[in-house]
What does this fold into?
Amino acid sequence: MIQLYYSPGTACLAPHFLMEELGLPYELVLVDTSKKEHQQPAYLQLNPNGKIPLLIDGDLQLTESAAICMYLADQYPDSSKTNNFSPALGTPARAQLYQWMMYLTNTLQAELLTYFYPDRLSEDEACTAQVKAKAEQRVAQMLEYVDANLAKSKGAYLLGTQLSLADLFLFMLCRWTRGMQKPARAYPHIGPYLNVLLERPSIAKAFKMEGVEAPFY
Ligand SMILES: N[C@@H](CCC(=O)N[C@@H](CS)C(=O)NCC(=O)O)C(=O)O
It folds into this structure.
């Protein structure tokens, strides 16, 4: 059975939402970061980077939240065919999915990591505070961009009328902004978009399983 190594509310969320959407059987394995289990030999043997999440599917050991989502959507397409979380190869929709996933991972998610871990960039306290503040400003610019794109989308989602794994990934990243001066929920198009996504049983169930409580974003 597929195993997802998780720590509540972290980068495991997007793969977790997706496994629920796809109706896959899976087991959640808690990595207790308060006990630094992610830095202990048993976990490092599975994921030498010591990061969460990790997916195990048979002989495959896969890290990187976005890669896990893209793998799952290709490997286990929605059997009910009510959703196509990853549009067909070679189509414009697939190209747009790539564009969004690259933007979300190497731009928005990367900046969020700077916001949460500014001490990794400087040991000087004043400098760390400045790095964090700048990261928050840059995240705000990125959320403006996302908001503008949702405004001109021809449907409720990033790819238009088609819900995709990029939406599940964006939902996770928006959650992480909830402590910012202008969180994602405060943007005119992102706010209602998050409200719609939260109504999906997959999202509510994943939060419940991980023990994550409201406010969700
Ligand atoms: N790019 C990675 C980031 C993984 C990551 O940084 N995970 C965090 C939790 S959200 C983590 O493991 N933090 C523990 C640490 O960095 O020591 C992904 O998306 O999977």
Observations:
- The longest strand covers residues 2-6.
- Residues 20 and 205 are 8 Å apart (CA to CA).
